Amino acid sequence: MPALICGSLAFDTITTFPGRFAQQILPEQLHILNVSFLVPTLRREFGGCAGNIAYTLSLLGGQPLVMAALGPDGSDYVERIESWGAGTEYVQMIADSHTAQAIIITDADNNQITAFHPGAMQSAHLQPVPVRDDIRVAIVAPDGRDAMLQHAAQLEQAKIPFIFDPGQGLPMFDGTELMRFVAQASWIAVNDYEAQMLCDRTGQTLESLSRSHLRGVVVTLGASGCDLWQQGVRTRIEGVVASAVVDPTGCGDAFRAALLYGIERGWTLKRCIELGNRVGAIKIACRGGQNHTLGPLTPNL
């Protein structure tokens, strides 16, 4: 059965800074910040959270159903998604906007600075969650502000369990709005930085959030693996050593595809996360969010 993926489709311009941001940015001078990074390499990739998640879910053998917005420059992206066997009937074309664009700089420590132009993504709310009996699970990933708010409410009304994955969109929401997402969602997936911001804005702790109706709070920790919080108990699930560390872009999205794949099949969250850690380690060894292959990886651990 299909998994509904609500999120962004974007073009990524990815560059690499061979130094370290920490050596170029002076904390005591942040009020007059004026920094330029020399980036010798540059490439353009298909990206956006919905596209990246759908790509890996397709590799795993899932059925992604993408709900997003593109500009008139995005027709090639629709063809690309359809080539994976993924559904695009809920991808809308916005005539007067460019497809969303991300410009990403990655330093030698795999820290990233991103500038993002939302473009057509700001109209993603115009496409409502479809009324279908075959959608078993969904994810609300970073998207336009109105789209995230409306799609979460529509999924709750349709009684479709979903993962709330605020990602880089988290700063758009205040504590009250974030608690509304929490109340509507069945799972939360954040990285460790986002987890701290979520707690700061809501006045909650990961422990208290996990003691609610939520089936799990998943906090990714990069190479260190992942913390799974359920009913106040934290379980550390160790990471998988990557064969090479090339590009972190899209690693979190690959991980979330594994969560969707396992949840749709009734796996335990621990098993879903173990698969996610393996997939993330494979993705980080490849440039871009949609160029990796899973090779001999067998989802049925």
Describe the structure.
This protein has 301 residues and is an alpha/beta fold. The chain has a single domain, classed as Ribokinase (UDP-N-acetylmuramoyl-L-alanine:D-glutamate ligase). Helices cover 31% and strands 24% of the residues. The longest helix is centred in the last third of the chain and has 15 residues. The protein starts with a strand and ends in an 18-residue tail after the last helix.
Layout of SSEs?
Blueprint: E1 3-6, E2 10-16, H1 21-24, E3 41-47, H2 49-60, E4 64-70, H3 75-83, E5 87-93, E6 100-106, E7 112-117, E8 137-140, H4 145-157, E9 162-164, H5 175-184, E10 187-191, H6 192-202, H7 206-210, E11 216-220, E12 226-230, E13 233-237, H8 251-264, H9 269-283
What would a concise description of this structure say?
The chain is α/β, with parallel strands linked by helices. It is built from nine helices and 13 strands.
Give a quick account of the main beta sheet: strands, pairing sense, barrel closure: 9 strands, mixed
Protein structure class: alpha/beta
Secondary structure tally, helices:
9
Give the name of the CATH architecture: 3-Layer(aba) Sandwich
- Morphology call: globular
Number of strands: 13
